[in-house]
Amino acid sequence: MNILYERFMLFIFTLILLVVIYGLYDSWYVFSNASDDSYRKYKPEEGQNISDDIPITEDMVAWITIDDTNIDYPVMQGEDNSKYLNINPYGEYALSGSIFLDSRNSGDFTDEYSILYGHHMEYKVMFGALDDYLEEKYLKSHSEGTLLVGRTDVKALQVKVFAAAKVNVFDDSEFLKPDTKDIGSLIKERARVYDESVPASGRILALSTCTEPVSQNRLIVFCYIY
After folding, report:
1. How far apart are CA 148 and CA 158, in angstroms?
2. Per-residue pLDDT reduced to its tens digit, 65-92
3. Which of 9, 151, 159, 214 could be disulfide-bonded to 50 (CB atoms 3.0-4.6 Å)?
4. Are strands 99-101 and 72-76 parallel, antiparallel or unpaired?
5. Do residues 186 and 96 make contact, with C-beta atoms less than 8 angstroms apart?
6. CA 220, 221, 225, 226: dihedral to nearest 10 degrees?
C-alpha cells in the first residue's frame, strides 16, 4: 500500500513539475517572439521604395518609432482587426502578434483619426511601453516620434505625443472608432494626462493596448501627426 501511495505521489509531483516547466517555457517563448527585433534591419528610409523581396509581408503600411522608447515597429494592416492579433510581421503565428492599423483606416494615414493596436507585453515590449505615459513628466520627455508611411517613395511624418487616457471599450467606445467626430475635444475632456503646450494638428494618431490580459479597459496614447 505504501509503495502504491509513493508511486502515486511521485506521479503527481512529476506532473506538477512538467506543468511548471511548460509554463516557464511558454512564457519564455512568448517573450522571445515579442522581443525579436530582427525585422528592424528592414526599416524603410524616407524617399525610398520598399523592396518586394523582404520577408515582412506586403501588409506593412508604415513604421512607427517613438524616440527613446522600445516602440520601433512595422505597422501592419489586415482585412480585419483580428488578422494580426497573433500573426507577426513575417506572416507567422506568434502570440505577441504585430502592431497594426485599424482595418477601417486609410493606410496612408490621411484620416483625421487613425488607430494603432498592439499587445501589452511585459518588460515594455510591444505596447507595454505605453504604461509610462500615464505620468506627465514621462509623457513630456518622450513625446517625439516618426511615422514612415507607404511602400513607394516612403514619406516621413512627425508625431508628437500630447495625451494619455484609460478608457472602457463599452463606455468609451468612441475612442476605438476611426470615424468619431470631434475626437480632439473628447480626448481633452477625458485624458488622464494632457499636454496643453503641444501645438494642435488636424490629424490624430492613437496607440491602443489592453491594460490587463482579460479586460474591457484600454490604455491609449494620443499623438498629433505633422
Report:
1. 9
2. 999 999 999 999 999 999 999 999 999 9
3. 151
4. parallel
5. no
6. 170
Residue 2: CB atoms within 10 A of its CB come to 6
Rounded to an integer, what distance in angstroms lies between the CA atom of residue 72 and that of residue 159? 13
Cβ–Cβ under 8 Å, residues 184 and 202: no
C-alpha cell at 47: 524617399
Write the pLDDT tens digit of every residue in 51-60: 988 999 999 9
Sign of CA pseudo-dihedral 25, 30, 31, 35 = positive
* Residue range 168-198, pLDDT digits in tens: 999 999 999 999 999 999 999 999 999 999 9
SS3 193: strand
Residue 115, C-alpha cell as written in the block = 488607430
